[in-house]
Amino acid sequence: MPKFVYDFTEGNKDLKDLLGGKGANLSEMTNLGLPVPPGFTITTEACRHYLAEGAVPAGLAEEITEHLTALEGTMGKKLGQADDPLLVSVRSGAKFSMPGMMDTVLNIGLNDESVLGLAAQSGNERFAWDSYRRLIQMFGKTVLGVDGELFEESLEELKHAKGTTDDLDLTAADFQKLVGTFKGIVRERTGREFPTEPREQMDLAVKAVFDSWNSDRAILYRRQERIPTDLGTAVNICSMVFGNLGMDSGTGVAFTRDPASGQQGVYGDYLQNAQGEDVVAGIRNTVPLADLGQINEPVYRQLLQIMETLENHYLDLCDIEFTVERGKLWMLQTRVGKRTAAAAFRIACQLADQGLIDLNEAIHRVNGDQLAQLMFPRFDAAAPKEQIAKGMNASPGAAVGKAVFSSEAAVEAAARGEKVILVRRETTPDDLTGMIAAQGILTSRGGKTSHAAVVARGMGKTCVCGAEDLDVDVKARRLKTGDVVVQEGDVLSIDGSTGAVYLGEVPVSASPVVRYFEGELAPADGDELVQSVHRLMVHADAAARLAVRANADTPEDSERARRFGATGIGLCRTEHMFLGERRQLVEDLILATSDAEREAALDALAPFQKEDFHGILKAMDGLPVTIRLIDPPLHEFLPDLTELSVKVALAGADASDKDRRLLEAVHRLHEQNPMLGLRGVRLGLVIPGLFAMQVRAIAEAAAQRLSEGGDPRPEIMIPLVGSIQELEHAREEAEQVLRSVGGEVKALIGTMIELPRAALTAGQIAEGAEFFSFGTNDLTQTTWGFSRDDVEASFFSRYLELGVFGVSPFETLDRDGVGRLVRIAVEEGRRTRPDLKLGVCGEHGGDPESVHFFHEVGLDYVSCSPFRVPVARLEAGRAAV
Ligand code: ADP
Ligand code: MG
Ligand code: MG
Question: Which atom of ligand 1 is nearest to the CA of 277?
Answer without folding.
Answer: 14
